Every structure is written in structure tokens, then in C-alpha cells.
Amino acid sequence: MKRIKLLSVYEAWEYVMDHYYPFGLEEFAKRTDTYAMISIQDTHTGGFGFEFVPNNFCEGVLTLYFDDTVKEVEGAVLFDEEMADRIIRFVLEQDRAETLVIHCYGGQSRSRAVAAFIAYMLGKDNSRYFAKGNPNEHVYNTLLKVWHEKYAAPVQK
Fold first, then answer.
1. Among positive and negative, which fits the CA dihedral 101, 104, 108, 109?
2. What own/partner pairs with CB < 8 Å and gap ≥ 24 does 21-30 have?
3. Are the C-beta atoms of residues 33 and 57 closer than 8 Å to each other?
4. What does the pLDDT read at residue 138?
5. How many domains, in total, are found in the chain?
6. Helix (DSSP H) and strand (DSSP E) numbers for the chain
7. CATH code: domain of residue 45
8. Sequence-distant (≥ 6) Cβ neighbours of residue 79 within 8 angstroms
9. Using CB atoms within 10 A of its CB, is residue 15 exposed (0-12), middle (13-18) or buried (19+)?
10. Does residue 56 fall inside a structural domain?
11. Contacts (Cβ under 8 Å, ≥6 apart) of 32
């Protein structure tokens, strides 16, 4: 995976549509990179009214429904370890995609935390995700916990 793109839901929609082309006219697609998508949708609205699906350019889609909260709140879905595990497994499976697109509603908290974690997981510098915004601490810390407990090799002494 070469790139991580952190986007809002609107930017993600535009990104996907830039890959669109009329039947038989693939050369008219604005973008031709392959990508995988992590789509984070709200539960209190029942999602955004659409879901992304794999296509000629999209290698895979993981859609998760959880809300932007850092603790249990009545009526909201808190990000949990099972969701963290699904994200980690999805990223590990996306070795053919050139770009990993991660979005939530605004691209500022939940998806920023996921992008920061994935950069860390892939051994990339994740400081830009913290410098330009506020990743959801609960999401980031849950991902780190699951990564270190289930996937990361122990440090050799």
C-alpha cells in the first residue's frame, strides 16, 4: 500500500466518482489507481444512506458503524476491540491496493485516528495526523491495544 488518504464522506464520494467511466470507456476515468476503503458511518442516522462497494478499481471495502465518542454514551455505539481487529485484518489483506481511503463524516476524528494507527502499523510517520487535527483517542488507543496484544511481534532483548 503506497498511500493513505484521509477524507470526509463527501471527499470519499468524489474520490470514488473520479474512478467512474461509461461502459467500455475506461480511458475516461480521471483516476485509475486501485484502492481499498474503510468507511466509518454513524449509527444515530443509520449510516449515510449509501455504502461503497468493490469495483474495477476498488479492491475491498470495510464498512463499520460506530459513533464519535470516547466513552459509553446511551444510544451511541462505542468503538470496540472486535472492530479494531476487523480494521487490522482488513489492512493486512489489502496488499494489492495502491491507496487506502479512510473516511468518516468529517474526516477529523474517527477516521483520523484509524489513519494515524494504520500509518503506525505500517511503519510510517503518523505525526501529521496529530499535528493537523484531533484523532479520537479511544479509537486510536483501542487499535494500538489490539495490535500489540494480537499482531505485533514481541520485542527481542
1. negative
2. 26/56, 29/57
3. yes
4. 98
5. 1
6. 5, 4
7. 3.90.190.10
8. 66, 110, 136, 138, 139, 142
9. buried
10. yes
11. 19, 26, 57
Task: Write the CB contacts of 43 (distance below 8 Å, at least 6 apart in sequence).
Answer: 65, 66, 67, 76, 77
DSSP H or E segment with residue 146: helix 137-146
Q: Is 31 part of any domain?
A: yes
Mean pLDDT of 12-23: 93
- Residue 141 included in any domain: yes
pLDDT band at 155 (very low <50, low <70, confident <90, very high): low
Q: Has residue 91 got a pLDDT over 80?
A: yes
Q: Sort 22 into a burial class: Cβ within 10 Å, 0-12 / 13-18 / 19+.
A: exposed
Please list, in sequence order, all residues whose beta carbon lies within 8 angstroms of the beta carbon of residue 51, skipping any fewer than 6 positions away: 39, 41, 61, 63
Whether pLDDT at 156 is above 80: no
Residue numbers of the domain that contains 22:
3-151
User: What is residue 153's predicted lDDT score, i.e. its pLDDT?
Assistant: 67
Which of 21, 99, 28 has the alpha carbon at shortest distance from 56? 21
Q: Which three cell numbers stand for residue 148?
A: 500489540
Q: Is 156 domain-assigned? A: no
